[in-house]
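Predict the 3D structure for this chain.
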Amino acid sequence: MTNQDFEGRGSSTSGEHADRNQTMRDAASEPFAKASDTAKDAGASDTAKDAGAKAKRAATDAAHTLSDHITGLLNDQLGAGAQSANRFAGSMRVAADHLQHESPMLAGLVRGLAHHVDGYADSLEGQTIEQLIKNASDITRRQPAMMFGLAAVAGFFAFRTFKSAGAGPVVSPPIQPTHDHPSGNING
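Done. Predicted structure below.
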């Protein structure tokens, strides 16, 4: 390149020079703008992540609160059921006292049942629902055949109850067929 080439370029108008400078500035600033946008997106992403984490914590806290509330209600119901069983055992003892004169053997059987019901009620009264579930699970592991049998009996009774509740009156057909003749005589 010669000096003339440089001089020719230097003689260009200041407008062209300004345009070239602006183009170069735009080209150079483009990566910086993208980096800034990425940083903004990352900030938005972090904000979204924080909001998601807060929502998850709130949902978990609500679930724990609801679970604790339901467990408390079940424990209260368990205590009320144990008290009802104690009252039932007391009623069984009163019935056994009334039966004593007529049937001492039956009265002894009812007293024995009342004693067992009272024992079960006392053991239920001091337990929580978690302990009751654990004990039921342990019994199921130790004696699966008994639990299967109880489930089968309960299923049978439930089936019979639902079947009889939905059935209407049973209409039987007549035993003797009837034949209507045009003459009016009925012959079997």
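The chain is about 80% helix and 0% strand.
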